[in-house]
């Protein structure tokens, strides 16, 4: 179970760090795509270019089959996070129409779309296994949001930047098509000022802690300073 002070979570018979890389790797190793055949059988396909925003339609659920999309509140430009595999986009808005999210392609994406009626048939009426898969996906959606909260509630802006450096490298390792620079990646997801982010990155680069080329973080070359 989560230990908020120590930022750890127990799972798979061992203690794991409560960080995005560990959680996402664990999530990706779970078999949660048995429902996919049923979805594909009745789905339409749409494609979006990088930075294109998905326009949601009523009574429609969307599954990203290729690529990644960012998630943000519609009245706040800061990015909350990214879609995870098998995430049913549109489900939050369907059951809680008071909220509105913006989904933007971080790379070229292919999306499967099905009606809400088909979604309910596949996950609620087809088999208990599909319902279990959906429940697991929704649980991990919550876990990832809690991870973001833990990561970005730190008192020090520098500690937030440290966590974001590792998150950036991990995201690039699983989706090389994402082309966002490290400074913009941090600024769009936090309350930190542009000048502060650039200053910290410049000093880490000057101290040979990180390698940055053409605005993109290439590597973390040695243990980052505890404080700034």
From TrEMBL:
<feature type="domain" description="IprA winged helix-turn-helix">
    <location>
        <begin position="158"/>
        <end position="225"/>
    </location>
</feature>
<dbReference type="InterPro" id="IPR041687">
    <property type="entry name" value="HTH_46"/>
</dbReference>
<dbReference type="Pfam" id="PF15977">
    <property type="entry name" value="HTH_46"/>
</dbReference>
<dbReference type="InterPro" id="IPR018490">
    <property type="entry name" value="cNMP-bd_dom_sf"/>
</dbReference>
<dbReference type="InterPro" id="IPR014710">
    <property type="entry name" value="RmlC-like_jellyroll"/>
</dbReference>
<protein>
    <recommendedName>
        <fullName>IprA winged helix-turn-helix domain-containing protein</fullName>
    </recommendedName>
</protein>
């Amino acid at each position: 179970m989560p230990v908020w002070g120590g930022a750890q979570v127990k799972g798979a018979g061992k203690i794991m760090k409560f960080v995005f890389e560990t959680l996402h790797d664990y999530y990706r190793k779970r078999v949660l795509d048995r429902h996919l055949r049923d979805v594909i059988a009745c789905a339409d396909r749409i494609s979006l270019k990088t930075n294109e925003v998905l326009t949601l339609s009523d009574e429609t659920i969307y599954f990203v089959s290729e690529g990644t999309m960012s998630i943000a509140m519609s009245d706040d430009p800061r990015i909350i996070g990214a879609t995870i595999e098998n995430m049913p986009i549109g489900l939050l808005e369907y059951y809680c129409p008071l909220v509105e999210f913006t989904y933007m392609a971080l790379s070229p994406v292919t999306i499967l779309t099905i009606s809400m009626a088909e979604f309910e048939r596949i996950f609620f009426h087809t088999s208990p296994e599909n319902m279990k898969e959906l429940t697991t996906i929704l649980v991990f959606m919550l876990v990832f949001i809690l991870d973001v909260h833990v990561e970005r509630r730190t008192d020090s802006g520098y500690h937030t930047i440290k966590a974001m450096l590792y998150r950036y490298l991990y995201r690039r390792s699983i989706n090389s098509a994402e082309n966002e620079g490290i400074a913009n990646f941090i600024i769009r997801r936090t309350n930190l000022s542009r000048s502060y982010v650039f200053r910290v990155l410049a000093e880490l680069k000057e101290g040979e802690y990180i390698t940055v080329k053409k605005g993109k973080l290439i590597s973390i070359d040695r243990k980052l300073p505890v404080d700034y």
